[in-house]
Amino acid sequence: MIMNKGIYTKENVGNGVFIFTANKSFVEPKFGGLHEENEQAQCVAIVHDGNALFFYPEDMDNETHILLGLEKEQIGKIYPTAEEGMKDTDGIGNTKALAASGSEIAEKVIALDLCGLSWHIPTLQESVLGHEHKVMLNTALAICGKQPVKDNWYWCSTRKENKRNFVLDWNYGNRNYFIQANLNWVRPVSAISLNSLNLIKERYNEEDNVQ
Question: What is the value of pTM for the model shown?
Answer without folding.
Answer: 0.92
